[in-house]
Amino acid sequence: MVRGSRAHASIAEKDLPAWTFAQSQPATYPRQFLDVARARGVDREAALAHAGVEPARIDDPAGRLSLLEMWRLHEAVAARLDDPAFGFDVGLRLPLTAHGSLGYALMCAATPREAIALLERYWHLRGRSMVMHTRTREGELFLEVAPELPMPSWLRDQVLSSVLASMWRGMTFLMPTTAPTIEMWLTFAEPAGLAPLRARLPRLRFDMPVAGLRAAFDLALLDEPQPTANPEALAHALASCERERALMGRGADPLVERAAAALHLHDLHGVRARGYPSPAAVAKALHVTPRTFRRRLQEQGTSYSALLEAARRRDACRMLAGHELPIKEIGALLGYDDPANFTRAFRAWMGMSPRTWRAQHGP
After folding, report:
1. Can you give the pLDDT at residue 91?
2. pTM across the whole model
3. Alpha-carbon dihedral 102, 104, 108, 114, rounded to 10 degrees
4. CA gyration radius for the chain?
5. Contact in structure between 208 and 178 (CB atoms under 8 Å)
6. Exposed (0-12), middle (13-18) or buried (19+): which is 219, by Cβ within 10 Å?
7. What is the DSSP code (8-state) at residue 184?
8. At what angle do helices 231-248 and 100-108 cross, to 10 degrees?
9. In whole angstroms, what is the distance from residue 283 CA to residue 255 CA?
10. pLDDT tens by residue, 98-131
11. What is the spatial distance between Cα 116 and Cα 121, in angstroms, rounded to a whole number?
């Protein structure tokens, strides 16, 4: 029986790129997700039927689902379980080993700094629909997570809370001494039903301009040897990550993923900037020359302009859905000084004006 009482906007398939329909996502996450939901009384078979997923694909250790099918499972559970804090519980139940080869690579890395670099390089193997960007300055580390695609606010909040809770668990395993310094930032209001989970989470800060984990500690700790470091096992784990990337059909050069993640509008503390980093600034952040940056993007069939277009589309949808900023101001933040140019660009991306899109997806 459907028990949820909250209204949930449906997932708009027409707004999704082709890769979201490919069966490229490991069944590990939806299997864990459904196990937690079943423990709370959700009918597993009904949820699978809603998403159009055969039980055998979930139960197969090598099973794969499309991102859209995974979202449909979220939709089915949200309709049957009125618990906006559910995503936190799911994330807290995911140990590093649940992340497959990437999780083992993080455990076997020589230092936490190397583990963070590997997480950035291979994030797309396990974190599709979200992008991650790491920023550091003296005494402070911020792991920002943001939606890669437009999605209903209820789904965005559930995925964000699950991803960040899982990252928190992994970070406290790799760097247990930093746990007291970590804050979890969320872009939404505090959900009901969170009280039973608070003791297992770091300090929570809601209604923040960006989502992520913020830690304040001596960054020299990032270069301390990890007790689980194992060079031979790391080599095997990285080889598996490369095979998985090849199976996903994504480009072999991780620089493209890292460049896309570097195109963001916020500084370390979440303050909005005007416009995006220049090609030279992105190249510097990735430790390559501008000429090498252009060449490697070209080799992967893309360009800075194409990545910038995707970032503007992502951030436009995110701000229109999650903030009450005037549309003119959103356009200016994205680099469009003329509101008419922003409207034309948004129509080309989404097939409708920013005002119409906000009416359908906004808060």
Report:
1. 94
2. 0.72
3. 20
4. 20
5. no
6. middle
7. E
8. 150
9. 10
10. 898 999 999 999 999 999 988 988 887 876 678 8
11. 9
